[in-house]
Amino acid sequence: MNIRENVPISELTTMRLGGNARYVIEITNEDEVEPAYAFADDKELPVYVLGSGSNIIGRDGGFDGVILVNKIMGMGVYDEERDGTIELFANSGELLDDFVAYSVARGWHGIEALSAIPGTVGAAPVQNVGAYGQDIAQSLVLVRAYDQLLEEFVDIPVYDMDLSYRHSIFNSGDKVGRYFITKVVVRLNHDKMEPPFYNSLQAWLDEHGVTEYTPEMIRHAVCEIRAAKLPDPAMIASSGSFFKNVYLTSDEEIEAAKARGIPVWDGGKIPSGWLIEHAGLKGQVFHGMRVSDKASLVLINESARDYADLAAAREEIIRIVREKFGYTLEQEPMELGE
Ligand SMILES: Cc1cc2nc3c(=O)[nH]c(=O)nc-3n(C[C@H](O)[C@H](O)[C@H](O)COP(=O)(O)OP(=O)(O)OC[C@H]3O[C@@H](n4cnc5c(N)ncnc54)[C@H](O)[C@@H]3O)c2cc1C
Fold first, then answer.
1. For the whole prediction, is pTM greater than 0.70?
2. What is the pLDDT of residue 116?
3. Would you state the pLDDT for residue 306?
4. Could you tell me how far CA 265 lies from the centroid of its own chain?
5. What is the pLDDT of residues 281-319, one digit of tens each?
6. In 34-49, which positions are buried (b, 16+ CB within 10 angstroms) versus exposed (e)?
7. Atom of ligand 1 nearest to the CA of 70
8. Which of 46, 160, 175, 306 could form a disulfide with 65 if both were Cys (CB 3.0 to 4.6 A apart)?
9. Closest residue CA from atom 47 of ligand 1
10. Which fold has domain 238-336?
11. Considering the domain 75-189 in this protein, what is its CATH number?
């Protein structure tokens, strides 16, 4: 086991904030998982599982525990092709985009719109990653995971994960932190995505005269759209979308929003990027954090000194949007440390 001591969380996360973690262990193989938990047990320290750190914000006080950085690689066929469907697996340390590329190259449909989402395969079920009309829930079959409570590996079928918009048993409720996901299995098919597509994807396809919606073409379109507006985490510090979209639940709320000229999609979703932009915040800088001028939902860490700066920026943005529209934005990325 490769064990490092006193490692800045800022080095492990794409927002590049956060104090030190007491220990960091890189896990490259399923066999290393149990010994790593035993190491933490011996020292009576909590464990935190990390992928690429693209949806986690480190806090200034650091983490007095053991971070397991997931690098378990490998992918392939889980269950052979049958009646036009196939089950593919990826071990959880693989990048999600590499898994998407692998499936698309073989002509399979189901996760092509998840192209270019940063992060590892193992994190995909945690917040049910989604983009351009697809989410991982639509294809997921099961995950294999180390269960810290039972101290054994278990298979968790998709119907036990309670997946919905940015939500699962892995990020909400009493099972948070209990599992280290080591393998993800998806079921894919040869059907194609059909129009109407998500607005920006439809616009790109129309503009380029595309009428053949192969997985390769959708992947190409999504990669182009994302590259034009979203920051590359290798170059620019951010966690992607910083706020969740607002979901309205009653017809009255939906009608009231529409009457004020606020866009409401998919029967209740208000794009929070629209609210931020129409509150006049696009491109503005608060405490070293810039509201991206290409995608208002994205906060970029230009010169924040610490988590406290980010928290101050977040509160100001939430306050301004609430005063203007009456909706309270909620942060999407989770937080790590004290
Ligand atoms: C520029 C940018 C664009 C983005 N665009 C999108 C988008 O379009 N759609 C979208 O849904 N998200 C998007 N994100 C968010 C992010 O890419 C996803 O949440 C991704 O799944 C995070 O993967 P990760 O490996 O970096 O996870 P991390 O940030 O390392 O971890 C995220 C959470 O998952 C848990 N976790 C990670 N791995 C495991 C594991 N193996 N077992 C158990 N728990 C685990 C962690 O404990 C943590 O709670 C974007 C982020 C950025 C920076």
1. yes
2. 98
3. 96
4. 21
5. 999 999 999 999 999 999 999 999 999 999 999 999 999
6. eebbebbeeeeeebbb
7. 41
8. 46
9. 49
10. 3.90.78
11. 3.30.465.10
**Of 248, 282, 244, the residue nearest 268 (C-alpha):** 248
Residue 166 CA, closest ligand 1 atom number: 11
- Provide the residue ranges of all domains of the chain, joining segments of one domain with +: 2-70, 75-189, 238-336
Residue 101 confidence (pLDDT): 98
Q: Whose CA is nearest to atom 10 of ligand 1?
A: 129
- Residues within 6 Å of ligand 1 by CB: 14, 48-56, 70, 92, 117-120, 122-124, 126-127, 129-131, 170, 179-181, 230-231, 233, 238-241, 334
pLDDT of res. 267: 78
Q: Which residue, by CA, sits nearest to atom 20 of ligand 1?
A: 119
pLDDT at 192: 80
Ligand 1, residues 24, 47, 50, 149: which to mutate, most atoms within 8 A of Cβ? 50
Point out the ligand 1 atom lying closest to the alpha carbon of residue 179. Answer: 43
Residues of the chain with pLDDT under 50: none
User: Which atom of ligand 1 is the closest one to the Cα of 231?
Assistant: 1
Ligand 1 midpoint to CA 252 (Å): 34
pLDDT recorded at residue 319: 98
The domain made up of 2-70 is a member of CATH 3.30.160.100: no
Please count the other Cβ atoms lying within 10 Å of the Cβ belonging to residue 324. 14
